[in-house]
User: Fold these one by one.
Assistant:
Number 1:
Amino acid sequence: MRSDIGVGLIGTGFMGRCHAIAFRTAAAVFPLTIVPRMEAVADVNLSAAEEVAHRFGFARATADWRDLLDDPSVGVVAITSPNVLHKEMALAALEAGKHVYCEKPMALSLADAREMAAAAEASGVVHMVGYNYVANPAVIFARKLIDEGVLGKIIHFRCVNDEDYMADPSVPYSWRCRRDTAGSGTLADLGGHAVSLALYLAGPIASVSARVSTVIAERPVLDGESLTRSGPPNAASAVTRTAKVENEDQAVALLQFENGALGSLSSSRVAWGRKNYLAFEINGTKGTLIFDQERLNELRLFEAGAIGDDRNGFRTVPMGPEHEPYGMFLPAKGHQIGFNDKKAIEVARLMRAIAGEIHPYPSFHDGLAVESVIEAIERSAAEGRWIEPGTLAG
Ligand SMILES: NC(=O)c1ccc[n+]([C@@H]2O[C@H](COP(=O)([O-])OP(=O)(O)OC[C@H]3O[C@@H](n4cnc5c(N)ncnc54)[C@H](O)[C@@H]3O)[C@@H](O)[C@H]2O)c1
């Protein structure tokens, strides 16, 4: 028996549209017992909400996100607003008894993330955070290879997540530059994805030692632009002043995993040429695994002693129907799934969790674990010493 659940989407920017696509795709592609129904979309920009409602088939649009909470036909709330609003919106949605699917980072601070995880636990509803890279079939397969012992004991995990969207000093000041609206900088935006992969693939992180820096200290302020406005700047906006960037452009961290493995992580939002360079390499006692998000449909695997040394080397393993859930999208290798498919896999997990078929992953608890590592990296950089995330998570 199939039933459905009303979706209330908050935000219609980059992620809002990705969520809308993902809800539609998941409903069509996966054999769900509870199917998302496009019920309502909220955005402070009402015309943007109306346009997304029209385009994606939501029944209603509103400028007030609280309308979704009062609406009994909305069962799950998807939060894709800027970081500063996540906590208030998630807590209110939990209070209203809605399932909550919140974009990362969970909140601006570890304390806020902890409060959200506690409220989620007490609520009894399903909660998930949008650390979507762990939903990639290639990453799921990497975890399977690790669990099966193909790599032997994991001894080293290194991960990088770089983009260049703020490499140009003329990129204007925005909510992403402010502590009170974004929290940390590249760590909140990109580094958290690297941490989510580290935790999923190599396990809990015992200790970190880090450095951060802000490369472009000041950015131009466009007069007349709202800090939460989506899309490119208005061409008519004039630059009359600059404002100080309050968070880091780049970060590096050494990692000590609880299982004894060493690791490193780096993240930059000012790395020219990098568009979504999220890559990891895992060394084990029996082999090595390499992944690069810009080639997200493949893994590179080296297995020691698999064949004679004269012919052995890295093999490129293309994802295909054998690697779940790639086959829900395509019956053949080489045709490739993309970012939005990964988001649909995340939504399918959300729906299956709401149906009670699986545990949600990443839940708010998993999100809290990511936030505690980010906080440890920031504290380590500030205090110049190793910090143990476990002592911060609470
Ligand atoms: N999972 C990922 O891979 C990924 C990728 C990009 C962004 N994100 C996260 O998604 C969130 C949004 O980022 P984005 O790039 O989509 O930003 P964006 O600026 O493109 O979109 C934000 C949207 O929120 C709306 N908004 C602002 N205030 C609001 C309010 N009070 N009520 C309702 N709507 C409001 C804006 O009008 C806009 O439509 C961020 O937290 C970001 O970290 C996640």
Number 2:
Amino acid sequence: MVLKPDLNSVNFANIENSVNFVLILNQQNQLDLEYVRSQFPGLNNGWTYFDNAGGSQILTGVVERLNDFLYKRNVQTGGSYETSLKTSAAVLEGRSAMAQFINADRPEEIVFAPSSTVALNNLAEAISHQLKPGDEIIVTVSDHESNIGSWVRLEKRGVIVKFWELNKDSFELEIEELESLISERTRLVAVTHVSNIIGTINPIKEIARIVHSHGALICVDSVAFAPHRLIDVRDLDVDFLVFSTYKVYGPHFAVLYGKYELLLELENLYHYFHGKDEVPRKLEPGNPSYELAYSVAGIVEYFEEIGSGLTVESGKREKLEAAFEAVAIHEAGLSETLLSYLRFRNDCKIIGLESGTDYRRVPTISFFIKDKNPDQIARSVEKYNLAIRFGDFYARRLVDYLGYGDQNGVVRVSAVHYNTIGEVESLVEAFEKELN
Ligand SMILES: Cc1ncc(COP(=O)(O)O)c(C=O)c1O
């Protein structure tokens, strides 16, 4: 049985990044799904991908940029000849596009890395020189290991790492708990924007305010947020933030944002002759992949293109906002279609918010079904060419903390805006056939 979502009941309470109600009420913000899907050739191979939190399909515009770079500008930067100047300009173009994407002040605040894991490891190493034995770092039990392990490794230098635990009933990080952990020795709080299992947006702006009021820094993992909502580092007032472009319709690559003056203070990770003021170069040892750096501008072009059909505003930022508002509305429909079915089953435990129309929910939906192994559930729908997944998704501490470690983790269905309601209905029908 497939229940139709009631999008009029979208709960816009608790929205940190405010949504343009006029757009929503006028229903002007419908995604043109035909256009959207035409931009992802990888969707045409007969499979329906609900493993997007693992990695999304790539945009044609991004692949075209890769080709364009490799065929026309594939030389070393920093030379005085024409092609080299074009190569340097290409890398700057990608950096500027990412700065625009997350509303950073300047392109130098964008540090490229091969992955978010590497970016966070590098950040922890570069900041460790500012830490003294007895200084404290707070990490959460709900983060991906990338934003935990990098900080836990600093224990060998005498840093004390404290764990911010989760409310096991609501699956939420509670502010009171943070307030009980934070002290005058706290130097940094590392927290996920959205857990890649739970799918609930954490109140980062509020958390940043509390962290700053104690004189500490905040490092946010936005990997599971970035595909679904527009990041605004200035509005959030975060110090450091990471996301992976291969989950935001681009290539395997990542962005570390840092406030410029904080990046200046970090230790040099490159050759000894690179100055401390060489930001971001000193934090990109060996240089980033130029072609990937250039290609990620295609992500921003795509969302701008979607947004220009949805708003009369001419500013780039307004277009991106309009695009992501439409993404959020469409994704609420996807979430609610699946969640209404899961709620209707009386043998299913949803790990996270149970309503798809709560704005805080992204369509990364994990659950388990009584007496059914997650492994068995994921494999049972493969014959319908439906790709879902089971496991701990490297949020192993969370899965162990919730007590699911012994049962192969959880089942995760992770949709993004190019998925259709029809695809979710097909998944529900497959569950109905296979899991009763
Ligand atoms: C929430 C979250 N953080 C961090 C990572 C690590 O990203 P990367 O593969 O770019 O190192 C992932 C990857 O799945 C993730 O889901």
